[in-house]
């Protein structure tokens, strides 16, 4: 099983909408740098035409975008660490650019009054690429495979069982009402029951827009259009994905090898001639978890796995609130991201389930008053302490991530002005996971669904690193998932963030369990003449989310 922050705890145990979203959709393009390299000669590799004369696009992605287990939805493809449409396989439903649900394989669907049975009717005439018809049996097989699969990263834990009623009808029996099922089904690719086996990830058979033509591990993946696809024929015949580090991605654009090459804020000014800067808005949030319990409050998971928990400094609500009020996020974005980002206040800014109560304006004076009132007095060196305890803590970040490192140090510098001494510590994820309940960690999150908000906030959520527990917050989150429609869930999610009637929630004026810093823009070098289709807001991670609609890309 691939080890990710979502399944780390489980692995350890096994081993022993629309209106606010529309504002985020799409990408902005900047002009090419006039001092950049010379244009690539016509007909160079990656210039829009493949070796067999078909339309082709070459894209670079991070090495972590390569699916370790291959193109297998029953493991992590599509619905894993970074969610995206699976391309090779079809999904029951999908989302449009405003993240509204639309049908794909499903012709219609609905839920019973008690919320415990979902019924999907499947379109007829859909064929897998091996010529076998896709039926409700394949849908049930896929869902049950994820529900019962120890290695599955898609969250279908709310499902009891899926069953094929007939060839075109699938029923999903729920353990509990949970409309979040729809968000997961929108990225779960349907696999063939008759052709699924141990090597499926390397040789996937699907019914989606593309087929796997070639996979050279550690190097590239080549997809080609499925000639028998039941929907609109893809405009782009072949998609070549090169897996490479950031500096190599820049070189691929400079040499003309890539048509779309991912980059970062640090390199965004070096736009090669013949390219423009493609800036895609995201909900890719960077935030710091703040443990709410005192040191020694260990955390037990899976019944017998014990992790160090709690922090004597961040357990003080005044410190957590002061950090939220005292940080100038706009300044941080200019310093670290060269302006390529937006201030973040939650894990889902701008989404229909987000709450305005999460937003906080920078107020250093208010932060100072909070700390003074809580007894954190400044010493001769300007740093604060209380009863002999320094107002200081370590801040962990992924050592290989230069952006997180820069954010961590900028955060520490700003906190020092408040009298809070923070020591950034770069570490491997394996080491960070062991400290995730005891020390603040600079995380990257962001999803086109409220699932992460739930898991980062719910008392027993897999992402509740702050270990804040509230019956009122939990009740709102449970009500959100149990709502009859996703639209009816939004007020409950907002109340979990801040409920003015009960004065509870995780917002800065409440428990202040996190301090959110920035939403990071996703930046790419885009070859002139390529028409990249309008994008949905990108979730966390450069990678496959860019090509959700690759079939609608074209060359002018």
From TrEMBL:
UniProt keyword list: Signal, Transport
One of the protein's GO biological processes: peptide transport
GO molecular function: peptide transmembrane transporter activity
A Pfam cross-reference name: SBP_bac_5
Family matches, as Gene3D superfamilies: Dipeptide-binding Protein, Domain 3, Periplasmic binding protein-like II
Keyword Acetylation appears in the UniProt entry: no
InterPro entries tied to this protein: Peptide/Ni-bd (IPR030678), SBP_5 (IPR039424), SBP_5_dom (IPR000914), TAT_signal (IPR006311)
PROSITE patterns with a match to the protein in the record: PROKAR_LIPOPROTEIN, TAT
Signal peptide bounds: 1-25
Cellular component aspect of the GO annotation: ATP-binding cassette (ABC) transporter complex; periplasmic space
Domain Solute-binding protein family as annotated: residue spans: 101-454
PANTHER family: OLIGOPEPTIDE-BINDING PROTEIN APPA, PERIPLASMIC BINDING COMPONENT OF ABC TRANSPORTER
Family under the similarity heading: Belongs to the bacterial solute-binding protein 5 family.
Name this protein carries in UniProt: ABC transporter substrate-binding protein
């Amino acid at each position: 099983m691939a080890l990710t922050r979502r399944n780390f705890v489980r692995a350890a145990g096994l081993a022993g909408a629309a209106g606010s979203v529309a504002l985020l959709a799409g990408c902005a393009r900047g002009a090419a740098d006039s001092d950049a390299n010379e244009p690539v000669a016509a007909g160079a590799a990656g210039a829009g035409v493949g070796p067999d004369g078909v339309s082709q696009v070459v894209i670079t992605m991070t090495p972590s975008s390569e699916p370790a287990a291959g193109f297998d939805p029953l493991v992590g493809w599509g619905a894993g660490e970074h969610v995206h449409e699976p391309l090779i396989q079809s999904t029951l439903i999908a989302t449009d650019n405003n993240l509204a649900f639309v049908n794909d394989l499903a012709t219609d669907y609905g839920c019973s009054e008690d919320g415990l049975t979902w019924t999907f009717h499947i379109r007829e005439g859909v064929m897998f690429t091996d010529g076998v018809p896709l039926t409700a049996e394949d849908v049930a097989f896929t869902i049950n495979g994820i529900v019962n699969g120890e290695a599955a990263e898609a969250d279908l834990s709310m499902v009891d069982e899926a069953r094929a009623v007939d060839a075109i009808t699938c029923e999903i029996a729920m353990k509990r009402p949970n409309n979040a099922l729809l968000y997961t089904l929108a990225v779960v690719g349907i696999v063939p029951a008759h052709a699924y086996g141990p090597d499926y990830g390397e040789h996937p058979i699907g019914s989606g827009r593309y087929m796997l033509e070639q996979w050279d591990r550690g190097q590239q993946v080549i997809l080609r259009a499925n000639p028998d696809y039941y929907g609109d024929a893809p405009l782009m015949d072949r998609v070549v994905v090169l897996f490479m580090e950031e500096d190599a991605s820049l070189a691929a654009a400079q040499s003309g090898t890539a048509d779309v090459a991912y980059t970062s804020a640090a390199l965004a000014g070096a736009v090669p001639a013949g390219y423009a800067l493609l800036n895609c808005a995201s909900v890719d949030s960077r935030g710091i978890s703040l443990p709410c319990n005192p040191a020694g409050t260990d955390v037990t998971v899976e019944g017998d796995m014990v992790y160090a928990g709690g922090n004597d400094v961040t357990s003080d609500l005044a410190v957590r609130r002061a950090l939220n009020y005292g940080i100038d996020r706009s300044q941080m974005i200019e310093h670290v991201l060269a302006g390529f980002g937006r201030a973040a206040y939650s894990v889902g800014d701008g989404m229909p389930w987000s709450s305005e109560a999460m937003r906080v304006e920078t107020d250093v004076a208010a932060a100072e008053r909070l700390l003074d009132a809580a007894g954190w007095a400044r010493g001769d060196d300007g740093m604060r302490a209380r009863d002999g305890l320094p107002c200081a803590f370590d801040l962990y970040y992924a050592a290989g991530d230069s952006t997180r490192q820069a954010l961590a140090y900028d955060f520490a510098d700003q906190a020092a002005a408040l009298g809070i001494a923070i020591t950034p510590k770069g570490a491997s994820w394996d080491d960070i996971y062991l400290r995730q309940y005891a020390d603040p960690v600079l995380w990257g999150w962001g999803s086109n669904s409220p699932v992460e908000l739930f898991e980062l906030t719910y008392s027993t959520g897999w992402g509740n690193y702050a270990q804040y527990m509230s019956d009122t917050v939990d009740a709102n989150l449970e009500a959100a998932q149990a709502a009859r429609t996703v639209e009816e869930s939004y007020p409950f999610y907002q109340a979990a963030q801040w409920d003015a009637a009960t004065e509870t929630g995780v917002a800065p004026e409440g428990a202040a369990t996190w301090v959110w810093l920035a939403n990071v823009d996703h930046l790419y070098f885009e070859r002139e003449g390529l028409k990249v289709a309008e994008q949905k807001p990108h979730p966390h991670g450069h990678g496959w989310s860019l090509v959700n609609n690759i079939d609608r890309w074209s060359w002018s």
